[in-house]
Amino acid sequence: MSSMTEPAHFQRLSNQHLDSLEEETIFILREVAAAFERPALLFSGGKDSLVMLKCAEKAFGIGCIPYPLLMIDTGHNFHEVTDFRDFRARELGAEMIVRSVEGSMARGTVRLAHPGESRNVHQSVTLLETIEEFRFDALIGGARRDEEKARAKERIFSHRDSFGQWQPKAQRPELWTLFNTRLQPGEHFRVFPISNWTELDIWQYIEREQIALPSLYYTHKRDVVERKGLLVPVTGLTPAKDGETFERRDVRFRTVGDITCTCPVESRAATAADIVIETLAADVSERGATRMDDKTSEASMEKRKKDGYF
Predict the structure, then answer these.
(1) Domains and CATH numbers, the chain
(2) Interhelix angle for 79-92 vs 47-60, to 10°?
(3) Rg of the chain's alpha carbons, rounded to an integer?
(4) Model's pTM, two decimal places?
């Protein structure tokens, strides 16, 4: 329970609530290890995958995680995140597999409409190629139902057909935490152990467990331009356009992905506790507030998921 002297807006959900979420996640991670022959854990170095990795550490122990970590790299990821990804994998003694969209481009299976096109949507192709390469039968992902409408439709054990596609109307029941993990040749599952967590849960757990994160998640000064209601970071990949003026602001990233489609928010939150307070007051989801690629129907999450996206 929160201290009586603690301000009302700073009250935490009880440890019992976080314990229940952690217990469910650990149970699912162990179910995957027991039910599948060749699973892998999708690990980007972002906050959600770091929370999931913490639960995997508790489930199996350091150096004992029974499946490799996997990242599909666009080649345009923030170096702070990829550096932290590699550091954390080494720290846990886990196998880290990285496959890149650039590799698919070299093979001719991904072709960009123009050099400046975001590679984020093309990760689906590289992911499906990687599943075929390693014959993975289950991929554990860090998606949560509160992030976006299409993700809210997803089961914890989400079946994918032999083409790697998701059929929302053909999902399997998950009554009483019983999971149907039967597969036909060529099929696989995407498994989402933190489906029932919220952004607030994630930050409270990060604070409680003292989970280290890439520095981008906390306040820092960055050059940005305002564009269509978003703060677009000024980088070599996302330069200011003609007529735009950039300014240096105190910002942080609520979610991190490809540089070409991920925007920060204005913030001076320097700790996980500060971010808990900000999250309590937020009225827009993290993807809605920070992702350029979710703004158009052509690149909608549901369409991408049907095509094999995370």
Answers:
(1) 8-200+298-306 (3.40.50.620), 215-294 (no CATH)
(2) 0
(3) 19
(4) 0.87
